[in-house]
Amino acid sequence: xxxxxxxxxxxxxxxxxxxxxxxxxxxxxxxxxxxxxxxxxxxxxxxxxxxxxxxxxxxxxxxxxxxxxxxxxxxxxxxxxxxxxxxxxxxxxxxxxxxxxxxxxxxxxxxxxxxxxxxxxxxxxxxxxxxxxxxxxxxxxxxxxxxxxxxxxxxxxxxxxxxxxxxxxxxxxxxxxxxxxxxxxxxxxxxxxxxxxxxxxxxxxxxxxxxxxxxxxxxxxxxxxxxxxxxxxxxxxxxxxxxxxxxxxxxxxxxxxxxxxxxxxxxxxxxxxxxxxxxxxxxxxxxxxxxxxxxxxxxxxxxxxxxxxxxxxxxxxxxxxxxxxxxxxxxxxxxxxxxxxxxxxxxxxxxxxxxxxxxxxxxxxxxxxxxxxxxxxxxxxxxxxxxxxxxxxxxxxxxxxxxxxxxxxxxxxxxxxxxxxxxxxxxxxxxxxxxxxxxxxxxxxxxxxxxxxxxxxxxxxxxxxxxxxxxxxxxxxxxxxxxxxxxxxxxxxxxxxxxxxxxxxxxxxxxxxxxxxxxxxxxxxxxxxxxxxxxxxxxxxxxxxxxxxxxxxxxxxxxxxxxxxxxxxxxxxxxxxxxxxxxxxxxxxxxxxxxxxxxxxxxxxxxxxxxxxxxxxxxxxxxxxxxxxxxxxxxxxxxxxxxxxxxxxxxxxxxxxxxxxxxxxxxxxxxxxxxxxxxxxxxxxxxxxxxxxxxxxxxxxxxxxxxxxxxxxxxxxxxxxxxxxxxxxxxxxxxxxxxxxxxxxxxxxxxxxxxxxxx
Length: 759
What we know:
Anoct_dimer
């Protein structure tokens, strides 16, 4: 009802975009052709579904501009899983391996060049990256005001959604379907996402072809991590069984449970009653299941396990990056972010490519980064800082965002475990002198050690929390899809709903929007922190994690195949900054395990008593109990004991200081043993296998030879666009600018050879 004169220019522009047919938009029409338009009416609403594809000339131009690698020659042998190769040599059947139809072939590749187009293997061009680039960078107003790209139009509700469609339905028809007749989505569902495939290798090459390298690397890491949990689970179960078999023979536990030698214990707080030591018999036995003679061995094992796991993942990641043609993606192929291109105040010449690129001064970047760090410390408005830092590429932008949010989430989720492990019961005082914090008395531990409390909290997290999250992942997406479908067809009869739901646009729009991999990575990396930083308190944590991850792989696979709209296939060289986060967690785990053994576990106390008093631990309980101060006895008219190394006056005893020195020495020795061994593992295991280095050189040589053999002067192909229309960068008034759409003479727009759909 507003008058048009009162609207600002940006609002007028959006209204014009909403009211104008897409066929009248020259910026998009010179790039894209519309395959078909479909209208669906739901009550008073009308939803237009537009299927787009680009002409062959545009796809070739952008394939060269984006430096997309295209196949030159098929490899003589196809890659397979390492264990499969080994078992084939030994003549043993591998129950985990399965033949998946339509396996993508491995090729020697090189960057696409129009002058050498005939050299490339005749495959259908991967059109989604080119179309995504067009939609992300096409401007519809003043670029410096951010009026460009499909994301801005989506945020302003000009469009409801933009996504590539799935290949077809994922269900297999009742009459059955031959494997060679299945579409890619059906193959992924039947050979990957089904629950019956829980013990089969993941078809990662199929995942990469359909969803892109970024999603494929997530599932590759998740599967690799799950496989490595198997030895950790076995060792953890053995350590737990050792505790089960030795708890009945433990002398200190027998002393606590002996009713005849029962002792009155002092109150745990100023208002608490006196209690008998035998009342904590069951808690002590449970504590010995987790805190036993195998604790130190298991902590050392898990520290080295984490280091070795990361080293082998680096090698696995390098192999996959080579197979998937993204080995040097971050260095040579990744394009600048559209917002960086627009907002960069100047350009500079790239020393590698010798081309002008948008540039943001480091001084300005550090100022923005410092501002972001200040906000993170204050834990306010976390998603905003990364937007101001002006990272050049999408990878750097995502890494910055992930790091900030992860720090907040890690502290938030682990704060209670850290409190139990290192603070609870250490500042509670002693009878007659209980300490308070803001008028509230500090918590105490029942048996003098909070190890059993930490184990209990770990069991709640690793069992209860993981089951709850898995149930949410099963039911929440189904409910969201049902609700979205109900809102979409709110006022249509059932027959019309079925007719509309059979069209390509509706079947994809009914699904959920893909929101990225952050939540999936965050859940798994937090879980990795649990089983490394606090694993001493719960040797069964790797086993529960293994069982959870078997379910998690299939749940995530079903979400991507059945419940999400197909995401844009994004390239990635590895799992990004998540690997550096895992490395930091591994180093924190070494320090945490040392502190837990030294201060939370009673391992060092027992060892000290064995070497100074009695090796069989007779009298150990009396050794750990102090007499109540005389002032407290006079006031309460009751003698009692409490667990501490203090004298009758309440001062720290000589034994306490001896044990403190031993604890600190143990931490130093533990770190100086683990870190050098970890460094040695890092040296002995190169990040990139020698076989991958050789293959990279071979491919470079073959590509160079193939191009040299066909390098003859020839005119530019008819589809070559003007060189001034460089993607991503254009000199304009001293600033970086988005590319301008190529112009075609009226009536001479080239016809597409084959459809490359984009909804």
